[in-house]
Amino acid sequence: MNTSTFASTKTNTSTTSSSIKLSDTAELGGRVLLSSLFVLSGLSKITAYAATMAYMSSLGVPNVLLPAVIATELLGGLAIAFGWKTRVAAFLLAGFSLLTALVAHTNFADQIQMIMFLKNVSIAGGFLLLTARGAGRISLDSKLH
User: Fold this and answer.
1) How many degrees, rounded to 5, is the angle at CA 66 between CA 53 and CA 116?
2) What does the pLDDT look like over 15-32, one tens digit per residue?
């Protein structure tokens, strides 16, 4: 009886350890995937600054906001990827994603724009989950606390 209890406990512990490692890796992977869009978008706005200003103007967004948009995407994306100040960065990027959806993607007669709107709303949902749950164990937040 003691042997079977020990074997059962050992199996459960082993399974739990594997699940924790998998969830830690999944959290890191999820953060990197979510943030990659923002980091790459911020970098592309820097390399195509004039074209981005023209696009923002066509949407009625003041050009003076472009540096703030770039900083939000680039720094916010890096913060999420590294898991630094994750809850704050995720909350801000959720708001940024929703605002972008409302400003740039409301022409629902165009199916691409509707998909872009829903993509932004879905990304905001992912960021809200990060806001609630935090970065996980493989993060600067975890190491600094």
Assistant:
1) 80
2) 445 556 899 999 999 999
Q: Read off the pLDDT of residues 124-137 as tens digits, 9 standing for 90 and up.
A: 999 999 999 999 99
List the Cα angle 69/79/90 in 5-degree steps. 75
pLDDT higher than threshold 60 for residue 3? no
| Dist. CA 40–CA 67, nearest whole Å | 15
| Distance from C-alpha of 36 to C-alpha of 47, rounded to nearest angstrom | 17
Q: Nearest CA to 95 among 53, 124, 74?
A: 124
How is the chain classified by DSSP, letter by letter?
A: -HHHHHHHHHHHHHHHHHHHHHHHHHHHHHHHHHHHHHHHHHHHHHHTHHHHHHHHHHTT--GGGHHHHHHHHHHHHHHHHHTSSHHHHHHHHHHHHHHHHHHH---TTSHHHHHHHHHHHHHHHHHHHHHHH-S-SSSHHHHH-
